């Protein structure tokens, strides 16, 4: 589905790889290419605008990375933003605390709801659930039979109104189905509802009535990813008319441009839970924003390389630090770097909470608050590179200058320098003991 988009994005990003440094003009040019690629893929204009603005802002403001070259950095940013518009974290199905969990399917006719009901049933069965399908699409001729057929194929029970009972009332069917599910101990109920060719009020009202009758844990809006921009307007209509808690994209195996898939989460604010990519019941899986993003970028290998480069760089840094530790050559510059690296992980209090078995050290550690760290950071920043490299040269007059420059007392500077020497000595001893 995303072939053309993939090709264009790859081409846009590849022009960067030959550059050593990226100017703002380079970034603007790449952003322009990405913008055209997204618009041609039918991604909603608003989504494209936000996306491009964020890419530009982040790429221009990116700190120089020692692990990645500029082109890799931009690829990394584009990938992260793509994951973001696709919803970030994988969203799992909400299961009710007291069964049965009720999942209602809503969407236009032909979106793939009935097929999805079968796919979901099979998927749920594999996860150890005992699902039941409910035929509430009493509008489309054959819809009930079709659901019974997919139910049989998936090996699950289908609850349907008796044949020859006229058109029937879907709300009544839904209600009776829930009672039956409780009675027969089905822990998940999947309710198939009627769709129309277009959005209309009657359709919305019926879906809303069924919703009120069954009080679903999830309302899944099922949308055909091949319908392009219409997917977004349909999604908005269903959001306002029925409301939904998640999206299922179908027909991702088609050769349409795929923009709908990229827009629907951002436009509706609801996550994509599943994706269907074929007519068979197996052609279905949980939707993972990160996997989808790397598929769209068509750069799985490059992204792995980027990850490895970053890890290798961290590893190199760690080895360098360990070497310095054991030889007692740790400088204040290293100390500052370590401190910044740790702080990137979040407030120090949270980190302490994660330390296993910190035991009696915890009280002591608890006194290290973020303000204190800010101060230490300011003091080290107030030193010259030569002083950070060789703290022994920090004599009385230098201490006074540093104190004045960083807005602290000389005593605080003394404290830091003395503690640093103590820590360095202790670390060298420990390093020797642990054989770094
Ligand atoms: P409903 O009207 O929403 O219940 O839609 P159906 O489940 O009847 O599906 C409409 C058509 O789309 C059927 O021919 C399905 O076989 C087909 N279909 C459903 N999901 C997919 C999919 O993921 N990929 C492809 N290629 N076809 C699908």
UniProtKB/TrEMBL annotation:
The keyword tRNA processing does not apply. It catalyses: GTP + H2O = GDP + phosphate + H(+). GTP binds at residues 107-114, 192-196, 250-253. Residues 271-284 form the SRP54-type proteins GTP-binding domain. CDD domains: SRP_G (cd18539). One of its GO terms (cellular component) is signal recognition particle. GO terms for biological process: SRP-dependent cotranslational protein targeting to membrane. It is found in: Cytoplasm. Its EC number is 3.6.5.4. SUPFAM superfamilies: P-loop containing nucleoside triphosphate hydrolases, Signal peptide-binding domain. It is an enzyme of class 3 (hydrolase). GO terms for molecular function: 7S RNA binding; GTP binding; GTPase activity. PROSITE patterns: SRP54 (PS00300). It holds the Pfam family SRP54_N. InterPro entries: AAA+_ATPase, P-loop_NTPase, Signal_recog_part_SRP54_M_sf, Signal_recog_particl_SRP54_hlx, Signal_recog_particle_SRP54_M, SRP, SRP54, SRP54_GTPase_dom. Keywords: Cytoplasm, GTP-binding, Hydrolase, Nucleotide-binding, Ribonucleoprotein, RNA-binding, Signal recognition particle. It comes from the Bacteria. HAMAP family: SRP54 (MF_00306). Part of the signal recognition particle protein translocation system, which is composed of SRP and FtsY. Belongs to the GTP-binding SRP family. SRP54 subfamily. Involved in targeting and insertion of nascent membrane proteins into the cytoplasmic membrane. Binds to the hydrophobic signal sequence of the ribosome-nascent chain (RNC) as it emerges from the ribosomes. The SRP-RNC complex is then targeted to the cytoplasmic membrane where it interacts with the SRP receptor FtsY. This is Signal recognition particle protein. The gene is ffh.
């Amino acid at each position: 589905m995303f072939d053309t988009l993939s090709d264009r994005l790859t081409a846009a990003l590849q022009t960067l790889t030959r550059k050593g440094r990226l100017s703002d003009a380079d970034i603007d040019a790449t952003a322009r290419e990405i913008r055209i690629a997204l618009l041609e893929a039918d991604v909603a204009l608003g989504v494209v605008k936000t996306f491009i603005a964020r890419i530009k802002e982040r790429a221009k403001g990116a700190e120089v990375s020692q692990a990645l070259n500029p082109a890799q950095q931009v690829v990394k940013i584009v990938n992260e933003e793509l994951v973001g518009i696709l919803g970030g974290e994988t969203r799992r199905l909400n299961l009710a605390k007291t069964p049965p969990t009720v999942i209602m399917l809503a969407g236009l006719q032909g979106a793939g709801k009935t097929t999805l009901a079968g796919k979901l049933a099979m998927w749920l069965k594999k996860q150890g659930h005992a699902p039941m399908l409910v035929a509430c699409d009493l509008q489309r001729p054959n819809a009930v039979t079709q659901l019974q057929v997919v139910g049989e194929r998936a090996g699950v029970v289908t609850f349907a109104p008796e044949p020859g009972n006229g058109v029937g009332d879907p709300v009544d069917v839904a209600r009776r189905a829930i009672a039956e599910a409780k009675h027969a101990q089905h822990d998940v109920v999947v309710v198939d509802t009627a769709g129309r060719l277009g959005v209309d009020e009657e359709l919305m009202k019926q879906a809303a009535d069924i919703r009120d009758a069954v009080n679903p844990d999830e309302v899944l809006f099922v949308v055909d990813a091949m319908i392009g921009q219409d997917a977004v307007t349909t999604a908005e209509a269903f959001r306002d008319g029925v409301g939904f808690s998640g999206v299922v994209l179908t027909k991702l195996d088609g050769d349409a441009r795929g923009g709908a898939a990229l827009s629907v989460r951002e436009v509706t604010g609801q996550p994509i839970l599943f994706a269907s990519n074929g007519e068979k019941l197996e052609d279905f899986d949980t939707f993972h924003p990160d996997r989808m993003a790397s598929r769209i970028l068509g750069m799985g290998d490059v992204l792995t390389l980027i990850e490895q480069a970053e890890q290798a760089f961290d590893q190199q840094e760690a080895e360098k630090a360990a070497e310095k530790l054991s030889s007692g050559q740790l400088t204040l510059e290293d100390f500052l770097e370590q401190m910044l690296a740790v702080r990137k992980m979040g407030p120090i209090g949270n980190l302490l909470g994660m330390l296993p078995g910190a035991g009696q050290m915890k009280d002591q550690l608890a006194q290290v608050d973020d303000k204190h760290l800010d101060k230490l950071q300011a003091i080290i920043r107030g030193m010259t590179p030569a002083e950070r490299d060789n703290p022994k040269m920090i004599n009385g007059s230098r201490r006074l200058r540093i104190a004045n420059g960083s807005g602290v007392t000389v005593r605080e500077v003394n404290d830091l320098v003395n503690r640093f020497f103590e820590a360095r000595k202790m670390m060298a001893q420990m390093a020797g003991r642990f054989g770094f």
